[in-house]
Automatic annotation (TrEMBL):
Keywords: Membrane, Transmembrane, Transmembrane helix. This is Uncharacterized protein. The keyword Transmembrane applies. The chain crosses the membrane at residues 12-34, 40-58, 65-86, 98-125.
């Protein structure tokens, strides 16, 4: 059994993941109450994913670090879907996944993830603004 000093950060992360799951569930409920039924699926599935990440973080399984990746996947997915629908003020939300990556991953992994996904996101967003006569194929 791990000591209390080593168990506290795991419980703290689990508490934060559980709060994220509650917020995501509230977001899905908000879409339901607003009558935007087409947007409920992703937040509802991500609520289950975050609940699974919380339980994985609380377990003493050797791969409990995977819960951080589940949280990052859910953040990147939700931001990617929601930013495409926002007309103004999207810049604030684009900073959330890189900051979250630095909070839950070691610095080397966070930098690598942000460089790779930042470049991919930049290519995809610039592909939308290209004219129809662009000579290269748009693969994003």
């Amino acid at each position: 059994m791990p000591s209390e000093e080593k168990l506290w950060p795991s419980r703290l992360f689990a508490l934060v993941y559980a709060a994220g799951a509650v917020l995501m569930g509230g977001y899905a409920l908000w879409h339901y109450l607003m009558g935007d039924y087409g947007q409920i699926t992703l937040p509802a599935l991500l609520t289950l994913l975050l609940a699974g990440a919380t339980l994985l973080r609380l377990s003493h399984h050797p791969q409990r670090y995977l819960s951080a990746y589940l949280v990052l996947i859910s953040a990147y997915l939700l931001i990617a879907v929601e930013v495409a629908q926002l007309e103004g003020g999207a810049g604030l939300w684009l900073g959330l996944p890189p900051v979250l990556a630095f909070l839950v991953l070691p610095p080397g992994s966070a930098i690598l993830l942000n460089v790779l996904l930042g470049g991919c996101g930049w290519c995809c967003w610039s592909a939308r603004s290209r004219p129809a006569s662009w000579p290269w194929p748009t693969w994003c």
